[in-house]
Design goal:
Length: 138
């Protein structure tokens, strides 16, 4: 009975609440029990803001959208870079297809990494953008 409840809408609500309140162990348990990620971006944005690498990974593996946008046109990647969450940003780079997307302030992930002097991320973003330009030219 509990498993069915956790996989129902009630479980989805509990998952979102656990993520929003920073209760990562509970959120991970719910995800591992099969509760689906029904909100397309909210839970992932909260996990990124908290810098919780394991929870971000679990959400992404369970269907959270890495290319979802917040109200200002930011990707989860923008938030990770702005907050200096390098490991979370590196994880998101493995999932997102929008590496060069600008937000409403015309900030791209690369411009934010340059602004905040996250040199390791600048190198990784440069490499990814260079590979995409080469692929498009072929």
């Amino acid at each position: 009975m509990v498993r069915w409840l956790e996989k129902s809408l009630w479980g989805v609500g509990r998952l979102r609440e656990a993520v929003e309140q920073g209760r990562a162990p509970e959120a991970l348990r719910l995800l591992r029990s099969g509760v689906p990620v029904r909100d397309t971006w909210g839970s992932l944005f909260h996990a990124v803001e908290q810098g919780d690498l394991e929870l971000c990974h679990c959400l992404l593996n369970n269907g959270a959208d890495p290319d979802a946008l917040d109200g200002q046109g930011n990707l989860p990647l923008h938030h990770a870079i702005r907050n200096g969450n390098h490991s979370v940003a590196e994880l998101l780079l493995c999932y997102t297809s929008e590496v060069s997307r600008a937000n409403q302030n015309s900030e791209t992930p690369l411009s934010l990494a340059l602004h905040y002097q996250h040199h390791d991320l600048v190198g990784h973003l440069d490499q990814m953008l260079g590979e995409r330009v080469e692929q498009e030219a072929v």
